[in-house]
Task: structure prediction
Amino acid sequence: MSKVLSKRFVSLLVTLFGLTVVVFSIVHLLPGDPAQVMLGERATPSAVIQLREEMGLDRPLLLQYGSYLGKLLKGDLGRSLQTRQEISTIISEKFPATLELTAVALFFSILVGMSAGVFAASRRNSFFDSAVMIGALTGISMPIFWLALILLYVFGFQLNLFPITGRLPADLTFKPITYFILFDSLISGRLDVFCKALHHLILPALALSTIPMAIIARITRAAVIETLGEDFIRTARAKGLTEKVIVLKHALTTALIPILTVIGLQFGLLLGGAIITETIFAWPGMGTWLLSAVNSRDYPAVQGGVLAVGLAFSLVNLAVDLLYSAVDPRIRK
Amino acid sequence: MTPQKTHRCFYRLAVFFSIFLLLQGCNSDKKEEAGTEKTEINQQAASGPRKGSTLIFARAGDSVGLDPGHETDGESFKVADNLYEGLVAFEFGSTVVTPALAKSWEISKDGKTYTFYLREGVKFHDGTDFNADAVLFSFNRQFDSKHPFHQIGGAWKYWAAMGMSDLLQSISKKDDFTVVFKLKRPEAPFIANLAMNFASIVSPTAASKYKEELGQHPVGTGPFKFVEWQKNQKIVLERFDNYWGDKAYLDQVIYKAIPDPSVRLLEFSTGTVQMMDYPNPEDISVLEKRDDTKLIKEPGMNVAYLAMNLDKKPFDNTLVRQAFNYAINRDALIEHVYLGLGVKAKNPIPPIMWSYNDSIPEYEYNPEKAKALLKKAGLANGFKTNLWAIPVSRPYNPNGRKMAEIIQSDLRKVGIEAEIVTFEWGTYLSKSSQGEHDMVLLGWTGDNGDPDNFLYVLLDKEAAKKPAQNLSFYRSEKLHKILMEAKTTADQSKRDALYKKAQVIIHEDAPWVPIAHGVEVLPVKKNVMGYIMDPTGKRRFQKTWLDK
Result:
């Protein structure tokens, strides 16, 4: 096991190194000079030259990459060209917001998606099965911005059941510690804040969960149907086991590998931030931050942000690999 | 149902119900809070400014930073406007320069020496004293490349963009409350520059303590002080009780960032915020009908224009440029692009600016006249050209693509085939500054309320050197002489006359098709009182209070 782990760890490092090369080249190949973009209409020639010099953009690319990598090895992600803040500080504030939202959204998707998928598979070709499949198709093709606005309009504005935006009410005083608000509120003993944070989480998490939910439902259904056709299921049936035991215990556990893969992928994707959901719910996550960093050609911010997302994605993949061997004894060797 | 099933069903219901209760719990205490707030307000007298309460302002984005020397974006300034002050300030609701941290100033006869007499007894929010050293610190960190803080936080973008280093000779203090600025040449708009955000005075103590992070821990002398900033969520300010001037009424101002305009409107409609920035133009008519809302409107200090490149044929011909001015239907642009939230432009400067020449006749929409002028220019059969469409939405132009399409169809009616071209924003700016376009759509938002900041920057021959800001590459010696004279004259009435004359020359030479001035609309709840909208896009809350 430790051998597998160390092997995976090395490949993780290689991936991350590759990522730095790719991200560095891509951001520098993007059209548009950051100095020009920052100054906008006010970009007088001398101002642009002065700004490029002060941002170190006039040095050769290879030199810029070298000094970037050197600092990175020391754990220094640099400062944002735009806000002059440490990028590690920005990430430590944004990433928890994304992770909290993602975790709740994924929880919804797995809960509903898997149950619907299993249910549909066990009643294949029934009315319920078609309903789930149509629902899933709708979920995948539904534009999130539209769904999010509808959710806000109905549950936020008309019924006034949920708050409209943000992680907490604007006039509530609460100093986050780790920026995982749910966690912070609990450790500082503020149950009222916990309750409000959860309340603020539900609508964005619902909106964000639709696509993964639909994908998980479809893949679960397909995987369970496939296993239900196998010989060992026939044996189980012959043994006289109830349909419920057959589906949940025998078919689902065997079908879990592709489902886990999809969940892992969806999780990784969501960690990159959900630009539309974040924009609509004014959620201070990674997605909108990275987008604005790209738009303003904030090189260090883009590099740091993508690297962080890449690292998170790789870690999720690693976790999924480990889970494979936990659920399937055949993979354990 | 078997007893076991009933039991399970009951259990599930119980879980569901408790979740529901939890949510309701959150909601009900929100309502209670709102209730107490209401009675509290009711007990107050309705007349006159009322001290207390919190104003929540929903705006389109978060601030980038709050170090006034470093920021360039409006969302940063909207907060900094309340935290910091300069030696001078713009009067509320206008661009007239008034004393602020300087109680008075003198300008030498040659117009090159400015002596400022500073206000005494002013405190920064951190309790330190405001004096000449603080002024020197705030300017020299931007001006003097050997200043220990010059390298802190990277480039001084606004300082550079306003060409301050080319203008200033030296800054020195005579005594603790007298500061002398020496200029390399007389420059009348200089005093207006000092009312801009980059010229705000920061606390040297705080700057030394926080260095690059001053933008996260702002300390100024303004009527509000900084409390807290949760990125992309909110910025909280509270009244500064040791303020030297008229103290603010509000206890707190909370800036809440909500990027989507429809969602901002929903938040405003539920009543959790009292003021919102940039509503969708489509929503204005809905807002107008609401009893609890009032709309504050102000023509912005901006202009959208179409620049024709005089370096390219046939735009070197004045007749052609005039023909284009007749060919474009500005009324249609106001209606369809601005959705009514714009004012037709006939001059490069907006009507709210002093020296605006209202006696100039506008080029009315007249395709026949345009055709006749083209014929006179020998282009009766029209020609092919290109039209660059601005890729982003700006205060002066909400929709560059739509504008370009309407102009394209207008031009087609007089026989001109214009191909619409566009690039990503940064590329758009750099390519147009190199003069690669035939015609380009762009605009300008005024910085310091001085006509020089429009006319010289955008239309003088000096600004036509590549990379240029004079995108018409219009080089008029006659105009240059007038603009230089106006720049170096201190007498306001003389300057006024000179700029009026300059507008006549520009009108006749027609290097642009001036299109429109965008109007800003700020929806507020009816109980928001005393708020004055600034043409410079500032959001100042010193005089604002909440009524019942």
